[in-house]
Every structure is written in structure tokens, then in C-alpha cells.
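Give me C-alpha cells for this 137-residue protein.
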Amino acid sequence: MKEFIWPVRVYYEDTDNGGVVYYANYLKFMERARTEWLRALGVEQDYLVEKHDLIFAVRSAQVEYRKPARFNQLLNVTAAVANVSKASVTFEQKITPAENNNVVLCDGQIRVVSLSASTFKPKPLPAEISMEIISGS
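Here you go.
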């Protein structure tokens, strides 16, 4: 399971009035990391829609909030493929301070499913995409 790392800076808009990252924004950070992971594999999401009528949607998210991230902090957000099936990919993700990857602020398991962009019904991953995901993990 190869880990992809994406750096994220905490902006004021990401925080509550106490200067702590609002809980839903951790999921946004994880989404960005998965998108950039896919891009690093050479796959753009607009290409998937145009060529394969395919989109990804989060099916489930199990998240543990361990320590607060704060305004202006630089974070590392990871994405690693834990499992690939015919129409889904499960990721193990974590968010750590950039200066200390041993301190986990938030971690989770996110399962995304592949859907037809036109019908929103489950659709198997195209072979070329499935192979990119497997070889990239």
C-alpha cells in the first residue's frame, strides 16, 4: 500500500471561531488528497466523465478526530489504497502536522464507488483505470 502525500495549509476559512479546523473540513482535505493522487496517476476526473461516463462518490467514511489542527498550520494529508473491487476503492487516509508525521490529527477509511455520470447507478471501473489504481497503490 503506497502512500500518497498532499500538503495542505489551514486557512482562516477552514477554522471555527476558536481557530481550530472545523470537523467537516478534514473530509475536504482528504478529498483533495484523493483527487491529487488520481491526478498523479495521470487520470483527470473530467476525462473519466467524458470518456467513460464515470464519476466517483463517497459511499462511506469512518473518521477518527484525534487532535486539533489550527489556523495557518501546514499539514500532510495521505491517501493509500487499501482495497479495490469491481466498482469501488477503499482508502486509508490520515492527516498529520507537516513537521511531525508521527502525530496523527485525524485518520479514516473512505470508500468511494464508481457511478455512471448520466444515471448515478453503479458502474464497474474501466480496466485501464483499475490497472492504474492497482499499479499506483
